[in-house]
Amino acid sequence: MSTYCKEVRQLGFRLYAMISESLGLEQDYIKKVLGEQEQHMAVNFYPKCPSPELTYGLPAHTDPNALTILMMDEQVAGLQVLKEGRWIAVNPRPNALVINLGDQLQALSNGRYKSVWHRAVVNSDRPRMSIASFLCPCNSVKLGPAEKLIGEKSPAVYRNYTYDEYYKKFWSRNLDQEHCLELFRT
């Protein structure tokens, strides 16, 4: 598990570099601006449920962190993403990881990248397990749109804030309420 944690963290940092470059920023921009990052992991177990239409494993939400790397159960689907107003199942693939962009990448990119609305559903026939790794900014770091992405034609969409401020606001409300970033708009 220790090796997996280290490798997933390095994968996240490589993804940060590619996202930074895609935005026209220095390759190490996102990693630097997020500060000394924490990595949280959650092992989720969803038992089989005789009436899956009556409950969710997790309600609809976006992730408050920067990046989530998910190892799905290869036998049972359960993750759904919202696309154009419809919930789409993410079918498991052998040896694949699912990458969810979180709210902090949406803010840093000034809305060019979007955090992913997703939910977990349960299955009536089989239990399911997943392992989520969350890369989280340093609590005290100031976050907001990258200065290089702000201009006359593209004003800042979000105000600056600390991750601690955002995280507290995120968990003070229901997961499936409006997008928490709406509370940080300029």
TrEMBL record:
<keyword id="KW-0479">Metal-binding</keyword>
<feature type="domain" description="Fe2OG dioxygenase">
    <location>
        <begin position="37"/>
        <end position="137"/>
    </location>
</feature>
<dbReference type="Pfam" id="PF03171">
    <property type="entry name" value="2OG-FeII_Oxy"/>
</dbReference>
<keyword id="KW-0408">Iron</keyword>
<dbReference type="InterPro" id="IPR005123">
    <property type="entry name" value="Oxoglu/Fe-dep_dioxygenase_dom"/>
</dbReference>
<dbReference type="InterPro" id="IPR050295">
    <property type="entry name" value="Plant_2OG-oxidoreductases"/>
</dbReference>
<dbReference type="GO" id="GO:0046872">
    <property type="term" value="F:metal ion binding"/>
</dbReference>
<protein>
    <recommendedName>
        <fullName>Fe2OG dioxygenase domain-containing protein</fullName>
    </recommendedName>
</protein>
<dbReference type="InterPro" id="IPR027443">
    <property type="entry name" value="IPNS-like_sf"/>
</dbReference>
<dbReference type="InterPro" id="IPR044861">
    <property type="entry name" value="IPNS-like_FE2OG_OXY"/>
</dbReference>
